[in-house]
Write a structure and sequence with these properties.
about 350 residues, alpha/beta, six-stranded parallel β-sheet, six-stranded mixed β-sheet, 9 helices, about 30% helix, globular, binds NADP nicotinamide-adenine-dinucleotide phosphate
Amino acid sequence: MSQPNPLTVAVVGATGVVGRTMVAVLGERDFPIGELRLLASGRSAGRTVDVRGRSIEIEEARGEAFDGVDIALFSAGADISRDLAPQAAARGATVIDNSNAWRMDPNVPLVVSQVNADDLAWHEGIIANPNCSTMQLVPVLMALRDSVGIERAVVDTYQSVSGTGAEAIAELEGQIRAHVAGEAKQAGVYPHPIAFNALPEIDVFLDNGYTREEWKVVTESRKILHMPDLRISCTAVRVPVFVSHSEAVHVETREPITPERARRLFGEVDGVVVNDDPATHAYPLASDAAGRDEIFVGRVRQDPSIPGDRGLAFWVVSDNLRKGAATNAVEIAELLLERGWLRARSRREAVEAPA
Ligand SMILES: NC(=O)c1ccc[n+]([C@@H]2O[C@H](COP(=O)([O-])OP(=O)(O)OC[C@H]3O[C@@H](n4cnc5c(N)ncnc54)[C@H](OP(=O)(O)O)[C@@H]3O)[C@@H](O)[C@H]2O)c1
């Protein structure tokens, strides 16, 4: 390993639901941290947070805060990432960004740890972490791409409110309390009450009629899987679940495949667990996945609407805050360390080039 050890790590958005999960996951996995900088808005600056028995003061996220930082995990929204990620990278930090600011930039690798880790080799200081719905989908699609080929995929999501952030969690709790008290439900974060509802609107509407969340699943899946022409469509729905996203997935494969073989292939993917026994009502549940790092797959069955045994239907569930955001970001950081790729490619080449 060519990098200094232990490292100076910054978490931007450290007071948010993803940022707090990032801090927890770094600790759980014993990531080699010498100094941990917790950055957020000026509103939180000066507050202290207890991290594994140590009190750390939150600092305002500004360019100077990245001096001496080796790895910066960003999770404070796209505007902050657009502004501060290049500043952090210019100061020598490797940025792993959780927002949608850089994901489709052709010069920025978009990486799911068990799918396309080799893409990390060409980073220039900023690496993008995919959207949570894409994250749990692509390792499962990878298993089909590599075995029987994929002709087309249709994905319908059932996404938890923690995917929106801390305010949305509070909004669902408030609406549940209002319902029990017989009061009107106040909607603020979402355009309609989310309690006891299902909202087919996540992120803004685009000109093509899709929401941006749905289009992220389309474009990010193509980039991560290296399948620029993949035929894929998505409907993204917000549901009154606190943690974990669920997805109903229909795939048309190039060659025939049985559900038994698909279960075997899914189970062989690192970090994917098959839970599929209808006789005992065993299938992945959001409540079981919450707090876990794995991606769970079940309800695997033939899709009879596709001829020749080339259709599969299945259900994919994962914790959107962990594998969907924080865990994958930390896994990327671990891969960079293992492979000696912490420094941007251009700076590695400058050091390695013969005099
Ligand atoms: N939630 C998920 O499942 C998920 C999954 C994938 C990606 N993401 C992405 O992760 C990011 C954060 O999501 P979240 O769910 O953690 O949101 P959140 O709970 O609302 O937290 C937002 C964080 O951003 C910080 N922030 C806001 N304005 C800032 C500013 N001007 N300067 C510095 N920091 C600022 C907040 O700090 P203060 O407390 O000081 O306001 C807070 O730490 C978003 O880009 C989101 O799209 C989320």
